[in-house]
Amino acid sequence: MKKAIAAAFAAMVSLAASAGDGMKFALVNMAELIRLGPDYPRDTRMMTEKRQAYEDQLLKMQSELEALGEDLARQNESLRAPNPMLNPSVLEDQRKKFADGQKRFATLRQQLLLKTQECENTLRELQGMLSKRAAEKVRESLAKFAKEKGYDAIFDTDTAAWARDGIDVTGEVLAFCGIDADEARQAAKDAEAEARRRVPAPKAGESAPAAPADSAKRDGK
């Protein structure tokens, strides 16, 4: 997409130079305009809060998984060296409980994996929606700016291989939109700093302890 825009930009500049029609061009830093836009701090905090809410759910699931894993580890140790005086039926009940716990562990682990993927997809979609909306608002502002200032086209700085000094009008666009660049940068930094302080995402968890390898032999089965 950027290559196509850059090619179009070069073609239009060449056409304007050859035709001598006085076409007027400018460049802007789209990423900067989006980041310094009035919605950026709010959108960043919205993403942070949504991500934190999801991660709180995932951490709760992970804690349950870890607690079950620790309990299974204790049961496993007990089953590896069972009390020889223990009633066989009681020992069998313990082994059944251990097996049920392993199944429960596998189910919880799968649920955590699925929930993690679901949260990631939802956050990705939300981020895409917010980014698209922010870009559309910037383009609307650029259309008004271009009309008032008499520009025939405004391109993103990322698409220009070279441009003379003074053709970047990012600052002018910010002023046109009534945005104080210094205040906007600070607001963006604050929102980004808050996002970095969020709780880290949990891991999916390890496998449950395996059943004692010699349990069947001890039963004589």
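(the above was protein one; protein two follows)
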Amino acid sequence: MKARKDIVYMGTKLGAVLGGIAFLIFGIVPGFYFGSYGTLVLLSRLIGGPLEATVLIRVLTAIGIILGIFCIGAVSIVVGSIFGTVVGYATEAIGNLAKAKKEIPAEAETEAAKTK
């Protein structure tokens, strides 16, 4: 039972690392874009018109960018670890099937030897 837990745990960690790498490759630019765009749309709705480039708007846009990058990174890591966990369970199930196939012929040979 401990081996099963170790295999699944290793898959989870490996999936999280791969999700983090995928975020670094594919996620920073969309996080930057969606964070800044979402902040500007929200502020224009709250203020009720076009925005002027004031210090407050720039600071809030920077906070939105950081929040967008953080959210996309968190989603990438969580999805990667879920995928890794599924792969860990699948690897463990295939390993159990292979072990069961090896045990079945051995049991059949011992039963055949007993009947002789």
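Reviewer note on protein two: Residues 2-89 form one domain.
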